[in-house]
Amino acid sequence: MIQDPSFTKDLFKFLTDLRANNNRDWFQANKTRYEHDVHEPALEFVSDFAPLLDEISPHYRADPRPVGGSLFRIYRDVRFSKDKSPYKTQVGIRFRHALGKDVHAPVFYLHLEPAGSFAGAGIWHPGSVTLAKIRAAIVAYPKDWLSATREPPFAAVFELGGDSLKRAPSGYDPDHPLIEDLKRKDVVAYTMLDEKTVIGAGFLDEYARICRSATPFVEFLCRAVDAQF
Q: What percentage of residues in the chain have a pLDDT greater than 90?
């Protein structure tokens, strides 16, 4: 059964307006819009996705708590930024591994932004120990890595992204056949989403399908960092 839309065009309208009025006075005057059009639908999406996520992996969590859960706060950390705009102009939802607080495990991610929405998976900015484990796994199991990242269902939906080193990492042969993967500083993948898809009926099921497509990639990364999938 196709469910009612999780999100509406009002979410994107609010984010567009916030981008043009990124200040505390405007946000406070429009906080009811934020709660009704952005915050509440996002938390409902997280809650509704929980049983579908459990079918993908019992080791991942959809946490609908307003603070500290799957939904990122809208407030920016401006302490070390030249940009002092107080609010994020996108919605970020992260579905973490149950060991996420103890292990830098891969996540499933949903990013909602006017003309820039995408679904993602993987590990963003892994620490040196985690990245070393992933690189070691790619070298030790190249066929598994290639299968996970170059074949369907993953390759039919996702492409690898993130930052990479300009040169081969220390200790690795620059001529290694997978050197471009070994150069990665982020081990992430994404697929772009148009607004019509996000606000359409059935997006919850579509997002679940997208996450299932990422499972070979996420499972490889889980094995690499000693996390169950």
A: 90
pLDDT for 83: 80
Helices 128-140 + 142-150 axis angle, to 10? 100
Q: How do residues 130-174 score in pLDDT, each as one tens digit?
A: 999 999 999 999 999 999 999 999 999 999 999 999 999 999 999
Domains of the chain: 9-224 (3.30.930.20)
Q: Which residues contact 17 (CB under 8 A, 6 or more apart)?
A: 30
**How far apart, in whole angstroms, are the C-alpha atoms of residue 120 and residue 124?**
10
